[in-house]
Amino acid sequence: MTIHILNSLKIKPYLTFIKGSVTFLLVETNQGLVLIDTGIGRRDHLHPTQRMRYYKYFYRASKGLERTAFHLVQKLGYRPEDIHHIIISHLHLDHAGGLSDFPWAKVHIYKEEYDHVMARPSWKYEPEHWEHKPDWVQHKLTGEKWFDFDAIQLKGFDPEIWLIPLIGHSPGHASVAIRDGEGWILYGSDALPYNARVDLVPRWFARYFMYHHAPCIRELVAAHPEVRLVAGHMALRFYEND
Ligand SMILES: [Zn+2]
């Protein structure tokens, strides 16, 4: 069972020194290939909406289709039609753009995110990304725990996959933990700061401003070094495909 950590877009936001990315994962499981987040999709490059044009402008995003999940999957020797499941941390436009490239896949999402976005989409979302009416699978908390976190185990997956609601960045944001041999990969998505540097977020900053979960995650990895953190936006040097 292989877990690929991939970059779907190079970004260099204005007014920062960041040379970053938009991260997604491709996981081989007993239920076929699973994508965790999708980056931006082919249509976002070929026929971008106004909102997507602004996003790409302000983030000084890379061009070209070769980084889309649809193309990277094939470059790694897989077939896009073998993506049976997508797990989406949240529906912001830089994470959900690839949904429409895999219209046959079931899309797993924390119910709070789905309910919020469908009722009150904001400028951070691009409804075109789910215009094809995906086969949504909405998940609710049922009292399970992953370490000390309220979490939802996605049933029947080997390796184990857990959805861990860490809300704040979006109303129903959920991180995703994947069993990786003896350890875990915690794909924190946008609940984690750039490059997963939870050590750089002071507690007061987390309390009043952003990355509210960083102190808890820092404690988790200090106690459990077998948990490896991956953020929704990692530095370019992190990747196997850069
Ligand atoms: Zn986001």
Features:
242 residues; alpha/beta; Metallo-beta-lactamase, Chain A; 6-stranded mixed sheet; 5-stranded mixed sheet; 7 helices; 29% strand; binds zinc ion
In short:
By secondary structure, the protein is α/β, with parallel strands linked by helices.
Supply the helix-strand structural class.
alpha/beta
Distance between the termini: 22 Å
Helix content: 10-25%
The low-pLDDT segments are: none
Q: Work out the count of structural domains.
A: 1
The radius of gyration computed from the alpha-carbon positions, rounded to a whole number of angstroms, is: 17 Å
In terms of quaternary structure, what is this?
A: single chain
Bound heterogens, unique: zinc ion
What's the helix-strand series?
A: EEEHHHEHEHEEEEEEEHHE
- Superfamily at the CATH H level? Ribonuclease Z/Hydroxyacylglutathione hydrolase-like
Total helices: the number is 7
Q: What percent strand?
A: 25-35%
Q: So what's the overall shape?
A: globular
The count of strands amounts to 13
What's the main sheet like?
Answer: 6 strands, mixed
CATH topology: Metallo-beta-lactamase, Chain A
CATH architecture: 4-Layer Sandwich
Which strand order spans the largest sheet, edge to edge or round the barrel?
A: 1-2-3-4-5-6
CATH class: Alpha Beta
Mean pLDDT rating: 94
